[in-house]
Input
Amino acid sequence: MNNPAPLLLPEVGNYLGENCVRAHPVAQALYQHTQATVSFSQWLTTPEQVQFLALLIRMISAKRIVEVGVYTGHATLVMADAMGVDGQLIACDKSDQWLKTGQPFWQEAGVAERIDVRIAPAEETLQALLDDGHAGCMDMIFVDADKIHYPIYYELALSLLRPGGVMALDNALWIGEHTYQQSSPAARALHAVNQQVTHDDRVWSSCLPLASGLLLVYKR
Output
């Protein structure tokens, strides 16, 4: 199992997981099933991250959410549960290879009808949403996909967000690729989007050391 909190001392990460996370039972089952049976389980959004995302959704009463990068749908399930029966989550992924693992768990949790799966490159899906008149309509957008396209996803997602909407970009401090040393194309892209957000007068932002970094963006 990968370290769920690589930016924290192990004992702090362990304490966080054992004492500060109240997991959705079906989401926890999906998380454990993914770890046991699916390749690249290090891609999972961690329980403490999804709990935080769910809190954000409830705080801003988000009902229109876009997720960029689904994997097996652990975060998808928790976010769909948090937004309630009258919400819709557009789940974007370039393949259904892994999200098929999560769909039975979505059904079990009673959230499958709230999730609109779009299979295509995320840049195309986001642009299609803009072309269909959804600019400035989304309450929240969660980005956890291929890192080299983060600067592109950021601009498209910001156009989709309403004023007062929130974007969260995962892996902002991606220690596995030594982002701060810019040692790979993915790490350089993450550094670029961190700089892009920090100097963007259209937003307020804060980067949290949750898991491998969660960059929060509030659209003014």
Q: What stands out?
A: The mean pLDDT is 93. The two ends are 39 Å apart (CA to CA). The helical segments are 10-19, 25-37, 47-60, 74-83, 99-109, 122-131, 150-160, 185-198.
